[in-house]
TrEMBL record:
GO terms for biological process: ERAD pathway; glycoprotein catabolic process; SCF-dependent proteasomal ubiquitin-dependent protein catabolic process. It comes from Rhynochetos jubatus (kagu). One of its GO terms (molecular function) is ubiquitin protein ligase activity. GO terms for cellular component: cytoplasm; SCF ubiquitin ligase complex. Keywords: Ubl conjugation pathway. CDD domains: F-box_FBXO6-like. This is FBX6 protein. Coiled coil: none annotated. Residues 1-48 form the F-box domain. InterPro entries: F-box-assoc_dom (IPR007397), F-box-like_dom_sf (IPR036047), F-box_dom (IPR001810), F-box_only (IPR039752), Galactose-bd-like_sf (IPR008979).
Length: 253
């Protein structure tokens, strides 16, 4: 009697590649020695990458571990919640909320411009007192297990968009920290504050940073941004921010 274990290796690879990665690693790999061997094959994970649209021929030389590459691709998404103010201030910690406090406005806003991304419709805006907000990302809760972060150290890409209004100067600040289990700062991106003078072009600008080769032990990512206007006008004349993102590798996608 012929069983699934009697199938040629290439057929078994094709069949198992149809299964979710979690089932392959937690169940199929434990069935027998042969299945363990097949689940560990590079060809199986490359096939899964092809099925899910993660594969391109130019990656053949740059990808050293197709299983890890597949897992990172399948997990990749914006880890910041409510980045474009569609849910009011949900998920954001208001660390500093002075002046007339944070506010949400619709694009393009008074004396403002639309975002390059037409899917973004709202932004957060600061006042004449310091306004800062943050999110703490717990990597394990987002699917990034400790061994993955410590051994593979995938690229962590941070992006943010900011703009002034035409008729008022303002100040923008961004700080992103990679934290250990005990909240010790292992690496930090904290560029010089951006000061935009009155009568600027009010264009939206992107700031981006990629963490690479960071120390082992990263368990959290703290993202904080904000600022204020520089002319201390009552109302909401300060820096505008939206479309923030934190993503984890691979850079090829």
């Amino acid at each position: 009697m012929t069983t699934i274990c009697d199938l040629p290796e290439d057929v078994l690879v094709e069949l198992l590649s149809l299964l979710p990665a979690r089932d392959l690693l937690r169940a199929c790999r434990l069935v027998c020695t042969q299945w363990r061997y097949v689940v560990d094959l590079t060809t199986l994970w490359k096939r899964k990458c092809q099925r899910d649209g993660f594969y391109a021929p130019n990656l053949d030389r740059s990808v050293s571990d197709w299983q890890v590459f597949y897992m990172l691709c399948s997990l990749k998404r914006n880890l910041l919640k409510n980045p474009c103010a569609e849910e009011n201030f949900e998920h954001w910690q208001l660390d500093s909320n002075e002046g007339d406090k944070w506010k949400i406005e619709d694009l393009p806003g008074t004396h403002g411009r639309d975002m390059p991304d037409p899917t973004v419709h709202k932004y957060f805006v600061t006042s004449y007192g310091p306004c800062f907000k943050s999110q703490l990302i717990t990597l394990r809760e987002e699917g990034y297990w400790n061994q993955l972060m410590d051994e593979k150290r995938p690229e962590i890409v941070v992006k943010d968009w900011y703009a002034a209004r035409f008729d008022c100067g303002c100040r923008y600040e961004l700080t992103v920290r990679l934290l250990s289990e005990n909240y010790i700062v292992l690496e930090e991106f904290c560029p010089e504050p951006v000061v935009i003078e009155q009568w600027s072009d009010a264009a939206w600008k992107e700031i981006s940073h990629t963490f690479q080769n960071y120390p082992a032990g990263v368990r959290y990512i703290l993202f904080q941004h904000g600022g204020q206007d520089t002319q201390f006008w009552a109302g909401w004349y300060g820096i505008r921010v939206t479309n923030s993102s934190v993503t984890i590798g691979p850079l090829t996608l």
